[in-house]
């Protein structure tokens, strides 16, 4: 049986001609790599998001469109046969101009998805042309023929079973004789409207498609050579991780290690597809393998940091020895679609942090109506400027003295909301944003350096 590999290249990996050429080398070096999903060229999605918000001033609007074209033209100029691809891309750029104009008066989530999808549509034209000129048997494919989602524009939910059936019908036959290049991030609802999976969603697309075609491996090529014991920008001594389990890697993605979109590992885990993460600029540096079974399960694997936390503390004497109070609180939160992340309780109070469920950036908000309803039940205090520090590892509870080691190191820090126990893989807490990096540096030194 033929083995299939799916490879995904992120925005920086397809930023320009030279970056795309490195992608072509990586693809060419592994004959099992049959399906390629890519992001928009670096910077393009952000520019398209700006247009989608509605840029009133025509000169400003045109200059954003010029900037987008400039990024793409720099690549087109390097082709030996640029004529056809230039025409195709000009056509999409005309659509961008049209949508951007419509967005001035009628911005909407649906229009936003239509606009931002153009970034991935264009980048796939470019990579296909480049691979073509190198003589590779390549075919561009519109993933909207397979990646069916609901109509929740901006953060659409993939329809797993239909995706599998559509992949069997529309995609697998192409893979026999071709390397297929297609778009990450975008999909289509049942009515044929373009949708997106949310910012950074290309990783998730790649995992969904890998699952649908029952791939043997998934490669995520990005701008860092894999996962590290912590962000090397915070701690230069951070060490690369050669191999990590799905559970640990999921915790890392969830708790702010920005390498993978948090949903990526769900389909990979469902189908037990090993995932490789590496740098397309320095493929020789290797990377991280994420697998079900790994050889070592250290107590301490890595440290992750997530900024912009919103902590809500609810207090009421009615909670004392009562029942049903928390149920009422969660009913209000559920009604207002507030997703809760961490939670700690005492006899008369409960503290929770809010999940960022949309792509607006910044700290997640407690909706004013939810706050009003909660205030009818208890006092409500909302605090910002907090960061979440997560220590990821395995069965820390079985390691005698681990708590002393962790908290002893942090004795000069004011720790809030310490959570441990629900998962054997993480311990986390909040600290003031201003000292969060310092907390990571101290912990890294104690737990990961000189051990
Ligand atoms: N181009 C999209 C973004 O910038 C999707 C992705 O890169 O994964 O969010
Ligand atoms: Mg990206």
CATH class of the largest domain: Alpha Beta
Note poorly predicted spans. none
Based on CA atoms alone, the radius of gyration comes out at 24 Å
| Structural class determined from secondary elements | alpha/beta
Number of helices: 13
* Helix fraction bin: 25-40%
Bound molecules: aspartic acid, magnesium ion
Biggest sheet overview: 8 strands, mixed
Give the H and E element order. EHEHHHHEHEEEHEEHHEEEHEEHEHEEH
Provide the domain count.
2
How many runs of DSSP E, i.e. beta strands? 16
CATH topology of the largest domain: Carbamate kinase
Provide the CATH architecture of the largest domain: 3-Layer(aba) Sandwich
Mean pLDDT: 93
Q: What's the N-to-C terminus distance?
A: 45 Å
Strand order of the largest sheet: 3-4-2-1-7-9-10-8
Strand content: 15-25%
Binding site for ATP: 8-11, 222-223, 228, 233
Enzyme class: transferase
Protein name: Aspartokinase
InterPro entries: AceGlu_kinase-like_sf, ACT-like_dom_sf, ACT_Aspartokinase, Asp/Glu/Uridylate_kinase, Asp_kin_monofn, Asp_kinase, AsparK_Bifunc_asparK/hSer_DH, Aspartate_kinase_CS
């Amino acid at each position: 049986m033929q083995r299939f590999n799916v490879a995904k290249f992120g925005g920086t990996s397809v930023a320009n001609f030279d970056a795309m050429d490195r992608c072509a080398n990586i693809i060419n070096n592994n004959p099992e790599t049959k399906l390629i999903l890519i992001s928009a060229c670096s910077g393009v999605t952000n520019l398209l998001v700006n247009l989608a918000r509605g840029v009133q001033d025509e000169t400003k609007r045109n200059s954003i469109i010029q900037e987008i074209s400039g990024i793409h033209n720099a690549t087109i100029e390097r082709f030996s046969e640029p004529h056809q691809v230039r025409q195709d891309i000009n056509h999409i750029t005309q659509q961008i101009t049209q949508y951007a104009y419509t967005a001035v008066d009628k911005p909407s989530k649906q229009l936003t998805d239509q606009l931002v999808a153009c970034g991935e549509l264009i980048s796939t034209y470019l990579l296909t042309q480049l691979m073509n000129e190198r003589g590779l048997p390549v075919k561009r494919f519109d993933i909207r023929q397979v990646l069916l989602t609901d109509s929740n524009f901006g953060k659409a939910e993939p329809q797993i079973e239909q995706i599998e059936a559509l992949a069997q019908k529309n995609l697998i036959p192409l893979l026999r004789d071709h390397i297929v290049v297609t778009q990450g991030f975008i999909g289509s609802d049942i009515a044929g409207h373009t949708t997106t999976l949310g910012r950074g969603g290309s990783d998730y697309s790649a995992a969904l498609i890998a699952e649908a075609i029952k791939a043997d491996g998934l490669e995520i090529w990005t701008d860092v050579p894999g996962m590290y014991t912590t962000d090397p920008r915070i701690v230069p001594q951070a060490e690369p991780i050669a191999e990590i389990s799905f559970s640990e890697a999921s915790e890392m993605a969830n708790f702010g290690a920005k390498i993978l979109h948090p949903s990526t590992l769900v389909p990979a885990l469902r189908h037990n597809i090993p995932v490789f993460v590496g740098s397309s600029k320095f493929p020789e540096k290797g990377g991280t393998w994420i697998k079900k079974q790994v050889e070592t399960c250290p107590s301490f694997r890595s440290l992750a940091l997530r900024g912009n936390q919103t902590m809500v503390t609810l207090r009421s004497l009615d909670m004392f020895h009562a029942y049903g109070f928390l149920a009422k609180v969660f009913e209000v939160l559920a009604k207002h679609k507030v997703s809760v992340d961490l939670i700690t309780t005492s006899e008369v109070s409960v503290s929770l942090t809010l999940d960022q469920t949309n792509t607006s950036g910044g700290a997640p908000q407690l909706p004013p109506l939810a706050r009003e309803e909660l205030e009818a039940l208890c006092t409500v205090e909302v605090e910002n400027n907090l960061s979440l520090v997560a220590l990821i590892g395995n069965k820390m509870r079985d390691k005698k003295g681990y708590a002393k080691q962790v908290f002893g190191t942090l004795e000069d820090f004011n720790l809030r909301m310490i959570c441990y126990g629900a998962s054997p893989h993480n311990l986390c807490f909040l600290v003031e944003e201003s000292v969060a990096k310092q907390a990571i540096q101290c912990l890294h030194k104690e737990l990961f350096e000189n051990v």
